[in-house]
Amino acid sequence: MEKGLISVDRWTEHSQAYFLTHLHSDHTQGLSSSWAKGPIFCSRLTAKLFPFKFPGFNLSLLRLLAVGTWHSISLVSPSSASSSTLQVMPIDAHHCPGAVMFLFRGEFGCLLYTGDFRWETTSKRAEIGRTMLLNALKDDVVDILYLDNTYCNPSYAFPSRAIIAQQVIDIIVSHPEHDIIIGIDSLGKEDLLLHISHELKIKIWVWPERLQTMHLLGFHDIFTTKTSLTRVRAVPRYSFSVETLEGLNTMHPTIGIMPSGLPWVVRPLENGDKLFGSLLTSRYNRSKWSGNGGNHTEKPNGNLGSVEKFHKYIYSVPYSDHSCFAEIEDFVKLVQPTNMKGIVSSSSCYVDPLYYFGRLCGAYQSAQSLPHNKRKERVERVLAVNNKTTFRCGASAGVERKRAMTVKVKSSGIHASRMSALRRKKRGAKIEENDRPN
Ligand SMILES: [Zn+2]
What we know:
Blueprint: E1 6-8, E2 17-19, E3 40-43, H1 44-53, E4 62-65, E5 71-76, E6 83-92, E7 100-106, E8 109-113, H2 124-137, E9 144-147, H3 161-173, E10 179-184, H4 190-200, E11 204-205, H5 208-216, E12 223-224, E13 232-236, H6 242-249, E14 254-259, E15 264-268, H7 286-289, E16 308-311, E17 314-317, H8 325-335, E18 339-342, H9 353-361, H10 372-388, H11 399-405, E19 406-409, E20 414-418, E21 429-431
Helix pairs in contact: 3-4
Bound molecules: zinc ion.
């Protein structure tokens, strides 16, 4: 595709049209209330939430795209001034409210940009998405797949959100006298909160801005800002810390639940080079959870089998809105693209999905076919890079957020950090000439 024609989740350069997959901050860096570079194409729900995130935004620049429908967009070549037509279909990414993938078709070929997505094998919504995608593709081949590679590593093997949601219920029920706090972002994890509310017949406390978002999403009776009405509170992730939990426990017994696919690891304060346990050592028993794309029927050890008690007051549960490794693999097998690129990158760490899934594309040499030593070398290199990586949730994460993610447990002399092998520092793509499939 010609340079400067379209950008997806990328706002720093000039394009003819801009596409927004969803409203998480790591996808909106460079976008602001004063945006005037051009029209932004997004889902209807994202458009509805848009003014709340960007107050004062010129809403006439938003172009709503219905999910599951092909839309034609006329573009003019910046270099030749000739016009061309782009076709695009948004498909439910089942990530957070409003999140979509974009399937593009045009002179440049066929491109699929997933944004962040989670398609569990057991999810009806994902099944609808799969059918929609295959029907839209017909006999077309995806020339380039831009893939959510957040958990593109075999160590990221975790169960479906439905299983983990039930485990969260079990945790809460097993603490009848405790207050419960759950760390969430400004968008996402609504289904988990709804499940808790429905199963336990209680309201969920949220902070005032989050209540507004819940109302925009149509949830009017489930959430409250009155602490007296419930013992379950969903709090901003940046305020969720060991210190917060310790402080709360001086007043009332309280436990914290952190839903995320990212593992927590512990490392010594004095020797930052060595971790207690590898970053890439999954907390889950892979033989139980991996290899079937999240289609898990086996119950983990007891009711709380895969739940990790990170701290005496904190449970870490692998409730993730991103696909686990097996689900990513299933997705690549489904799409069978000619080529692919990961959308998650940072200056220090990037796991190329071709490393694991190149054999499914056919365009690149399979990782399996690499000589053993070479493969080992590459694995070790990935491990080395990842172990140096410190966690930050998005480049826009401010000091406050960084502090929240780094939990210091002074009394025990250890430094515990929440680590990600893949810092979500930068997302988005500008589809350019050199992306043109061969
Ligand atoms: Zn996201």
